[in-house]
Automatic annotation (TrEMBL):
Its membrane topology: Single-pass type II membrane protein
EC number: 2.4.1.-
Enzyme class: transferase
Pathway info: Protein modification; protein glycosylation
Every Fucosyltransferase C-terminal domain range: 224-405
Cellular component aspect of the GO annotation: Golgi cisterna membrane
Keyword presence, Membrane: yes
The protein's name: Fucosyltransferase
Primary subcellular site in the record, as a coarse category: Golgi
Family: Belongs to the glycosyltransferase 10 family.
Molecular function terms, GO-annotated: glycosyltransferase activity
Biological classification of the source: Eukaryota, Viridiplantae, Streptophyta, Embryophyta, Marchantiophyta
Amino acid sequence: MGLFSLRSLLSPCVSIAVIFLISSLIGVTFMLGPETELNSQTFAKPARIAVNGLLEKERNNVWDGQWNGEDIVDAYRQWDATVGCEEFRKNLPPLMPIESLQDPNHVKCSELKQLHVSVLVKEHTWIPDSLNNLHACSCGLTCLWTKSPVQADDPDANFYELFRPPRKRKEGDPLRVYLDLEAEKKRASQDIFVSYHAKDDVQATYAGTFFHMNRNHYISPQKNRDVLIYWSSSRCLKDRNDIAQSLLPLVPHHSFGKCLNNVGGQDALLAMYPICGEGGGGQHSWSHPLHCAMSHYKFVLAIENTLTESYVTEKLFYALDAGSVPIYFGAPNVLDLVPPKSIIVGSGFSSMDELAAYIKHLADDPVQYAEYHAWRRCGVVGHYNHTRAVSLDTLPCRLCAAISRLGGKHAPALEDKEDGDSSQDNAR
């Protein structure tokens, strides 16, 4: 199975019976270094908080073991009566400092060298036009972000994403900003590098709303009772397919997209859920119905293209926003970037059989399943608010602050940073 072989991917764990016992306790997340392999990650099973003693008796009085497996609000009500937000908050471990996320205010007011910065986006790119604006930032800084050379006729920085920046820059020329959010990030010749990683000049996570443009955001009040997992992939990478093929046959699922499709073709989604094709201006986009369709399933399988620290993409955040529980394979430090007790980390199980058994167990238990949604209903975000604070949504002000700290186009020329590939240089 290559990089994602079951042996290397999945950490040793306990038996299924012990898993269900551990699920009644508070999970403990261990800090992971950048070199930690996914099979070394300790995953805290979801908490079944305080269901012993008096609360166990209350649970028995409230819930008689009956749930139709569909009404998600009914599951919430049973969780409220059995556990509740007060108990949930009380049993959460303390929030620990992490290194996976950059300080949104990493540039201090005293470091600003100019109070207005203009950024010219140099090429046709997927960066949304909705970022184009004059942004009022903290410390009295204003930030003009535009794709128009008329509006930014003398920019402080040129922004590149599709093509690499020019290798040469002299003082007085715009600073070179380069964004690469892919896992195999490539430093080019630039003055400021924007990536998904906190250790680079400016961080931009996938958690922002700009990765959810043109979506049907309808949330279904009913979950599929018998088909538990949603998965969709049209880029059939071997490692990702290997994981999916190891898990999906063990759990009832619907696989949309080109890869492992079992619903009768890529057009089946709208036939199954016509409501997901309604509303908005992007009905004809392949991505328009995704949130809506996911919301009909208790679980969404989210597998990253590459196992890399901090590389957590929209595959995970789509599922969270759709009100489903992600089953995640990817970044070893993912728990630093998501709400507490909101996802299932697939690598925390000793085998796919064990993971499948756990998924089926949750699907039949409204209280345990609803606990994966408690963070949202109780307002417990953990580090997730931090993840969103350094997303693409807030990039203009944070980038302009970094440009101002350097002095904009008046910054001294820096030594070229060779990346060994000049094929995509484009000075424009």
